[in-house]
Design a protein that fits this description.
Elements lengths: L1 E8 L22 E2 L20 H6 L3 E2 L11 H5 L5 H15 L4 H5 L4 E9 L5 E8 L3 H12 L7 E3 L2 E18 L4 E2 L12 H11 L5 H7 L3 E9 L5 E8 L3 H13 L6 E3 L2 E13 L2
Parallel strand pairs: 3-7, 8-12
Antiparallel strand pairs: 1-7, 2-3, 4-5, 4-7, 6-7, 9-10, 9-12, 11-12
Length: 288
């Protein structure tokens, strides 16, 4: 058997809605929080601009959780081709993580996997600061998640009234180890695989985790429909070998495969009470 490590990433906070960070208890009524990580407020004085004014935005060190234009990961290729979009930025961020992550040996040895949530501040110049773990999996995976975030290039900063401001942001980084083998793949077994908590939970998972960042491109090209994906549910319940059986468009096909890779472990199929590998087919609907 060949051990293959799959690393999945979900960038829900890039959808353009309020990010996970916006749920922070620190948020005040005007969507600002005081920075408690080494930066200081500008001293109140008669000369201090009024909150919300452009002068105030330029001078303040406050950290916002929601702004008119949220920070985004840069996609150099899209910038060169003048094709920047939330979809391209999200894809670029996922590819950066996949290409740069190094699954810790300790985590492999201890069979550690899960989703680490990292909180950080995107500064006015796009640099990353104040990285911290808000949901931990293990010391080794937490450390790797922080390393990835710290190694990111400068982002496109968040803006309020067109002025760069500091914005707190969160992203989840998923770590999953999957052992693939060359044993038989069944099309049907006595006990078919099932999604945790049933089909209604599967439908809810898909609806809640689709990145509708494709919408701009999909609307422009009038893209919608049902993508049918096949994949293998392994003996340990993980999903592998995702393939598009019926295509709608490259952007929707890619999003459907990402959803399959991002799924939690299923209840594996069984033959005579023994877990086996089972091929499964699933439709994923995209509606504008």
């Amino acid at each position: 058997m060949k051990n293959k490590i799959l690393v999945t990433f979900m960038a829900l906070c890039l959808v353009g809605t309020t990010p996970i960070a916006a749920q922070s208890k620190e948020a005040s009524e005007n969507n600002e929080v005081s920075d408690t990580y080494g930066h200081h407020e500008i001293a109140d004085s008669l000369e201090q601009p009024a909150p919300g004014s452009n002068d105030y935005l330029r001078k303040t060190n406050k950290v916002f959780v929601v702004v008119e234009k949220m920070p985004s990961f840069p996609d150099p290729k899209a910038m060169m081709e003048h094709k920047m979009s939330p979809l391209q930025d999200a894809i670029a961020l996922m590819e950066f993580i996949q290409n740069n992550i190094q699954y810790p040996e300790e985590a492999i040895k201890n069979n550690e996997s899960g989703r680490v949530v990292v909180n950080f501040v995107v500064e006015k110049d796009g640099s990353i600061s104040n990285e911290r773990i808000v949901r931990s999996v293990s010391p080794s995976l937490d450390k790797e998640a922080l390393r990835i975030v710290s190694s990111m290039p400068k982002w496109n900063p968040g803006r309020q009234n067109g002025i760069p401001v500091r914005v707190r942001y969160e992203i989840p980084i998923g770590f999953r180890q999957t052992v693939r083998d060359s044993s038989r793949i069944y099309d049907a077994v006595e006990q078919m695989p099932s999604f945790p908590e049933g089909n209604s939970a599967l439908t809810e998972f898909i609806q809640n985790n689709i990145l509708y960042l494709y919408a701009e491109e999909a609307i422009k090209n009038n893209e919608s429909g049902r993508v049918i994906v096949s994949f293998v549910i392994e003996k340990d319940g993980s999903t592998t070998n995702g393939k598009v059986v019926r295509s709608v468009s490259p952007s929707l096909d890619k999003e459907a495969l990402r959803i399959i890779d991002f799924m939690p472990s299923w209840n594996p199929g069984k033959q005579k009470g023994v877990p086996v590998r089972v091929k499964y087919t699933l439709p994923i609907d995209f509606k504008l």
